[in-house]
Amino acid sequence: MKFSFAKPSLPASGVLAVTVAAERSLGPVGRELDQKTGGALARAMAAARFSGKKDETLSLLAPAGTDLDRVLLVGIGKAEDMGDLALQSAGGALAVALDKATDEASLLVELPEGAKLAAPAAAAEIAFGAQLRSYKFDKYRTNDRKADKKDPKPSLRRLTLLVEDEGAAKAAFKKLDTLADAIRFTRDLVSEPANVIYPESLAEKTRELEQFGVEVEILDQKKLKKIGMGALLGVSQGSAFEPRVVVMRWNGNPDAGDKRPVAFIGKGVTFDTGGISIKGAAGMEDMKWDMGGSATVIGTMYALAARKAKVNAIGIVGLVENMPSGTAQRPGDIVASLSGQTIEVINTDAEGRLVLADCLWYAQDVYKPKLMIDLATLTGAIITALGHEHAGLFSNNDDLAMNLTAAGLKVGQPVWRLPLGDAYDKEIESQAADMKNVGSGGGAGSIVGAQFLKRFVNDLPWAHIDIAGVAWSKKDAATVPKGATAFGVRLLDRFVADFHEE
């Protein structure tokens, strides 16, 4: 969708949306429109019991006294609640209400006295929300396109925001639009089927970040064998697709006193059958998004570089496909990780932690980061614990955990910290190797998975974010249509902005 900004005025024709605060409060230009229509807006709000609460919408077709085709009233709630997330949500509601109704519209942005944000910033946040909510992944729906040629349906493609100081609004939106691009890129990666996105092709997609100045290095199977990533290679050996590890480097602050980078590590299982410990058929198609952690890391590096973040950052993603075959890893196999520690593979469907183990060790051994954060669709157990509302957070550092929690709350991507401890660590003791890859069946599957990863972290701040419950949504949300969510991109971008940019 394209966005532009202009001074507040009543357009002569077309479709106009108008913000309405709580208790049906219209701004000066909104009241002018109501008078022009002979009070039609006020009567419609009263008849529909529309109060102006957040995300309410009410449509009036061809109101008398104007040549407008439609007026859409958009609720933005109470002044004291009118923060960035609330206004983004209003933008999402606007996008839903106008899509399929028109291809172009204007929005009159007027705020009540005491609103948290000034009008230009509010307009930018509304546009950002509309941009996020209007995302679609429909490139393979050819029948829809054929039908549209016969009976074309409009799709909202341009929105003009009418606001005082349109220049400030445009400048504020430019930064948000860059973040929206990174989120859209991430959602596309997760949405693609596994015959399109597999280790080699996903690795090549990361080269698109080079346009922003990101240095991209792709390690192929030969290199991975040479350096000793035995845990990761074990996962990939059943697939016809060779594994890849991608290192993305953004040196946004070369003059920093502490040049150590912030490191992000992502699990990239481009399709997960479970391997020999095969999953059930029902819902297995969803396992195309088992690379969601890697997509979030790629999207985060995109966001940081595109906005020229003053930070040094490393993104490392381990890309494999987990397939059953005559060459696949078997339950009972023992692999040697890059760290030198050996792992008895009890369950081949607990493969993501094997991939991350080698990537975590490689990140700290080669790049000496100040901290590491890994993201992975690691366990179904985290869905049992937290549902689809929070990601699971595990950390060996209280400050890092608090900072991630704070960043998540600010952008509407909440995380919930769960414990680590020696009792859980004992669950992965093995008689045949240094450890096994799953617990003894005593529950706490997400914690045990995190405890496994902790064995590959030396003495530096580290956090593991289990996004299995939030990487994909089966229902629409305010700014996230059902499908790939890109959970974590906004969280990590804000985390960097608030705590690691100079």
From TrEMBL:
Top EC category: hydrolase
Name the chemical reaction catalysed here. Release of an N-terminal amino acid, preferentially leucine, but not glutamic or aspartic acids; Release of an N-terminal amino acid, Xaa-|-Yaa-, in which Xaa is preferably Leu, but may be other amino acids including Pro although not Arg or Lys, and Yaa may be Pro. Amino acid amides and methyl esters are also readily hydrolyzed, but rates on arylamides are exceedingly low
- SUPFAM superfamilies per UniProt: Macro domain-like, Zn-dependent exopeptidases
Q: Which Gene3D superfamilies match?
A: Leucine Aminopeptidase, subunit E, domain 1 (3.40.220.10), Zn peptidases (3.40.630.10)
What PANTHER family does the database record attribute to this sequence?
CYTOSOL AMINOPEPTIDASE (PTHR11963:SF23), LEUCINE AMINOPEPTIDASE-RELATED (PTHR11963)
Alphabetical keyword list: Aminopeptidase, Cytoplasm, Hydrolase, Manganese, Metal-binding, Protease
Q: Which organism is it from?
A: Azospirillum picis
Active site at 279, 353
Q: Name one GO molecular function term.
A: aminopeptidase activity
Q: Report whether Cytoplasm shows up as a keyword of the record.
A: yes
So where does Mn(2+) 1 get bound? Answer: 272, 349, 351
Where, per UniProt, does this protein localize? Cytoplasm
Q: Where is the Cytosol aminopeptidase domain?
A: 347-354
What cofactor does its activity depend on? Mn(2+)
Gene designation: pepA
State which residue ranges cross the membrane: none
Question: This chain belongs to which protein, by name?
Answer: Probable cytosol aminopeptidase
